[in-house]
Each structure stands twice: as C-alpha cells, then as structure tokens.
Amino acid sequence: MSRRTGAETREHVLGVAHELFYRNGIHATGIDTVAAAAAVAPTTLYRQFASKDELVAAYVERADQATRAMIEAAVASAPSPRAAVLSMFDTQLAEMHRPGYRGCVCQMALAEYPDHRPAVVAKTWIRERLRDILRAAAATDADALADRLLLVHEGAIAAAASLGPGGPVTQLRPLVELLLDAHGVPAA
Asked: Any idea where the HTH tetR-type domain is (predicted)?
C-alpha cells in the first residue's frame, strides 16, 4: 500500500471531516473522531490543520468552492441573464433532491459559529453574483431584487432541510419567476 502525500492526506481528512460535520454537526464531531474515521493519527491531522477551527474553515471553504463551481457552470450555459438566475435556482433545487441532503454547509456552520467568516464570505459571494447578473439584465432595482432572491434562496435551503424536497420548495421556481417578472427581467 502506497503512502499518501501531504496534499492527499489533507484532502482525505477534509473529505472525512465533511461527511462527519455534515451528518453529525461540527460541535458534535471531535478531532479524535475525525482522525479515527480518516484512519490517521491525531498528530497527522494536526500537521494538516493546526486546530479544529482551521479544519472547520477548510471544510466550509471547500463546500463554498464546490457551490461556486456549480453555480458558475449553471450560469455559463444560460442564454440570458433571466435564464442564468433560473438555472442557479434549478441547480440548487437539484441539490435539495440529493440523497442525504441536510441543508447548506454554510448555514449549518453559521448556526454553530455565528459570524463564521468563511461562511459569511460564501453567502456574500452568492448575493454579489446575483447582483451582477441582474444588473446585466437591467432589472428594475437590481440590488433589491438580488436581496429578495437571496432571501428566497436561503429560505428554500432551510425549508428543504426541514420539510424535504416535496414541501414548500416545490414553489421555488414559480416564486423566482414571479420576482423576475415584477422587476422587468426579460425572458431573452
């Protein structure tokens, strides 16, 4: 059996931490639990992450990067700003149907660590991305619309986590379309 490089060990530990933090919660999952599940010594884990806070930050940042990539792929394939916004929400809705979905890593981190900087950065990026798209669409009051859509986004995530993908989130797309229409975002 070959040994992992430092980068491979870091990624392996981060993957295991992600599964445990997402399933069990951050506070409920100790470093020793992560090390045991990753089959590494605690000293090896601490060589990769100086503290649990550093591991949590890396976990949130990793989830943020995956979300950004998913959103950017959805936006890139859209033929118009309206389609880009709808594609963002459709992509999020598809995530909500994924087996084991428990909600947003950033929302979960903020619930346990108020003002968690990497989670706030992630949420701010989504808000700014919506603003950029809506400004390009010449939406009436694009900034207010972006904030309204962000509220819908965050509420949908919470509703899917608590009530499942067959609950209120079935109204996600019609609500987004209603808001886009109200702000004059054209179909093409």
From this structure: 7-67
Both 30 and 60 in one domain: the answer is no
Residues 123 and 156 in one domain: yes
Which of 92, 169, 155 is CA-nearest to residue 129?
Answer: 92
Residue 3: in which H helix or E strand, if any? none
> 134: domain range?
52-182
CATH number at residue 68: 1.10.357.10
Calculate Rg over the CA atoms of the chain.
19
Between CA 60 and CA 112 the distance in angstroms is: 12
> What burial class does residue 142 get, using C-beta atoms within 10 Å of its C-beta: 0-12 exposed, 13-18 middle, 19+ buried?
buried
Please report the pLDDT score of residue 1 as a whole number.
53
